[in-house]
What does this fold into?
Amino acid sequence: MILIAKPMVGDEEKKAVLDVLDSGMLAQGKKVKEFEEKFAEYIGAKYAVATSSGTTALHLALLASGVKSGDEVITTPFTFISTATPILFCNAKPVFADINPGTFNIDPEKIEKMVTSKTKVVLPVHLYGQSCEMDRIMEIADKHNLIVIEDACQAHGAEYKGKKVGGIGDAGCFSFYPTKNMTTGEGGMVTTTDEELAEEIRMLRDHGQKERYNYVMVGYNFRMTDIAAAVGIEQLKKLDKFNEKRRGNAGFLSEQLNGVVEIPYLLHGVRHVFHQYTIKIEKREMLKENLKKDGIGFGIYYPKPLHFYEPLKSYVNNDLKNAENVCEKVLSLPVHPGLSEANLERIVCSVKKFV
It folds into this structure.
């Protein structure tokens, strides 16, 4: 069976975890601080604040940016639900702007149409590992005095015109779930160049403490452990190598499948890191059955846009047709660094045989 995703964890991560366990210092500590510093340097941000997940990273970034009841946050309906639920956690309103059906990312021109006097934040998602059109998004944000929080949970190491995503907007949020381009098991990170924002997030993740037992706000327990951070430090060392393998695998798939199915569209000036390799195909259900028979994993990311689900149905608008159409055609093929040449050839043969 060729898996759709495979965490790449080696002896270095295992040793790092054992060293933390032997130290007796397991909760947030020196390893978390080291991981934050190295991740911030990698992204090109001044600060990074580790959290317990990508979801909590988004939640804290929104809270620290002052998002509250009555505010609106513009985002995409074509993403995982944890892009939108942190907006609801802040008692704010998610406003969905449609996507570019080629890149799968939010369409900047649709963003501007959704701006109102209540809009506080634009929350673009760098879906599948490809950056959004950040120049245009930042231009719109500057014009309307909006905050930009990048959801880079699928885009570790991705770049837009030479800048790493997560270091372009006011803040960037990352997830280290096991299937991501790098992992800590569970975990997240907020990156920013804003010192006050970083400090507020640090307090919010740790019970609202400015220093020990000095509670200055209502906070949460959204901390990362030193165990997770130790894994993250070792994974970060390997991230560029992992990403190059993903890009190489994607290049092979695109070369072989171009003209057979609709292959991923690459935006000019973008370095795609292929968290997922996502094709579009009309007869998706039939291809799924064929892949199952051939022992090849696949994923449907995502089968429905967010405004089709009960918690978000009330936030629908009439201009989300691209997202709705794309959801019926997308299928992701394995692209992870653990694939062999033989695996890639099997994937290509299975798709070509079906078509």
Notes: The chain has two domains: 11-233, 239-354.
